[in-house]
Design a protein that fits this description.
The complex is a heterodimer of chains A (431) and B (185). Chain A is an alpha+beta fold and 431 residues long. Chain A has 13 helices and eight strands. An eight-stranded antiparallel sheet of chain A has the order 4-3-2-1-5-6-7-8, with helices on both faces. The radius of gyration of chain A is 25 Å and the shape is globular. The interface between A and B is large, with 84 and 75 residues.
Amino acid sequence: MSGQWKIPPRFVAAALDSHSVIGLTFSALIYLVCLTGTLSVLVDELKLLEQPPPGAAVASAKLDAGALNAAVTATMAHEPSATAIYALAPTTPSQRLTLTAYGPDGENAFIADQHGSVVPQHTPFTDFVTDLHMTLTAPAPWGSLIVGITGAALLALIISGVLAHPRIFRDAFRLRLDGSQRLREAEIHNRLSVWGLPFHIAVTLSGALFGLANLTVLTVAGLGFHGDTERVLTPIVGPPVAADSRPAFLPNLGALVSRAQAAVPNSRLGYVGVERPGTRGARITVEVGTSERLPRGDAFYFDAQGRQIGRGRFMTGPAGLQVYSGAAQVHFGFFGGLPLRLIYVLLGSALTYVTASGFTIWLERQSERGRTRPRLRSAWRAWTRGVPAALAVAALASWAAVPVSWTFWSLVVAAQGAAFWRGSLRRAPAI
Amino acid sequence: MSFVGPTLAIASATLGVFLLRQAWARRGGGRSLTLAGWCVLLAGAWLWHLAGMAWDKAIAVATLGPSLIAYLVLIQQAEWRDGRANVTRTRLPSAPEPVSQDTFVRGVNRVVLAGPVALAAALGLTALIALRAPWVEADRLVTAGLVLPIAWSAAAIWATMDARLVRVAVVLIATTLICAGGALL
């Protein structure tokens, strides 16, 4: 042992301090983001549960010729003021051709069958869960920024957690659940953390990359491109097409997909995006990829006449583009089918538990030092139990056509109110 | 894809976890066993690659297996002995006492350093990489995007660990100015 390098105890104590401070500040948000992220992994299955066939289009992997044009045209009829329409192709048996129209009145989604007929997508609970995960249901750009900051905080917790526990790897196979609550929680917290480390780092870093993307782009645009954010994003979003509002028919989207697939052997369609649909200034993006690769695929850009104007080599080009596309796959677990996503659910649940137990360990430590903090303890319990319970009730409420968001936030606020009251009651005898 | 490749890859992950368990159970650390364990875990990615996945996907899939297998091992060998009398504080030492005894003002300063000041330094570094690194534009931009959360996290950890707040402030502000200046040049 004498020759072994040892981390100074003071450094370990300082790292634990850092871990505690960052954890206490962000635990509630991290818990919410991790829990909803874990649920969001099953987004396709949740949508099928909420809007099952035959009420909605049947999940299908094979589209008829002309189905894409029919589906986009039908969506334009529903949303005539749409500025962009994205048709996400089904790539698993649980997915359906889904079209999302973006316009002045926000975002509206439709589900298409293999012939291209569309029905409005009505999945309020799934939409709420994914929205809560990505934006906390806060207005843009603040929601995603807060989620990005939460991701950076979680990354800091992961790093400081490793620094604060010098024996974390050596004790990786010990799990002693016979002690006090703090020791039990600490054992589970540390073991779930150390063995989930690769997954925790991957989803946290990729999530923070997307959450803080606006901040990155604004900074780079401000310092290098006179505030031109579109210029900064050109390597990622591809070449622009000048706006021209004169009406124009859509080109044959199926033919564009075939051309893209011809350039990438054994590829399948990822999505088709139509910006400024129905105008001569339209830009069409076709993304095709192969199941062997981690990145989703290469993007092919066409103008309204169907002329190719560029190719985004997310699968075959610079490492940066491949990492960017791969990061999205890694974050959502969409690269290996349902078995892989079930593993994501398990590891995501572990991360959620680690977040909850971290705060509990701190409370127990405080309690051992004579500071019971009943209100905080009560509030934390109400948060860790109340949020999942509120989500479950909100899922039932969506069935009964009660507004999901209202139900969820009302229950969460009520749980916190009750916790405050209960915490005050517990405190009373001591006073 | 045949079942042979994935089966071998899963077996490799299991063997890797087993070897690490044996190594870490030894008092001296079992360096050769530890090395063998990590090598076998890495071989899992190679086996997924042989099973038909490209390297990027093979590595992503291979990192998940050991986590799951280790969780199963932990469940199987968890010590559930009843009775709090068995608890020995020496076995799992109580957490160290906090080192920082910050006053309110010092606490606020620390929060400002770990938050906005650390963020400014990370953004400066991000801009420097995005605008001045000698790579193609897409590589610069994506690297910068990845560096932002890592740099901010590292700076925030340092700001909440270091007892000398002036040193933290000087280094972070200097980093911001130098990086932003470099990006603007």
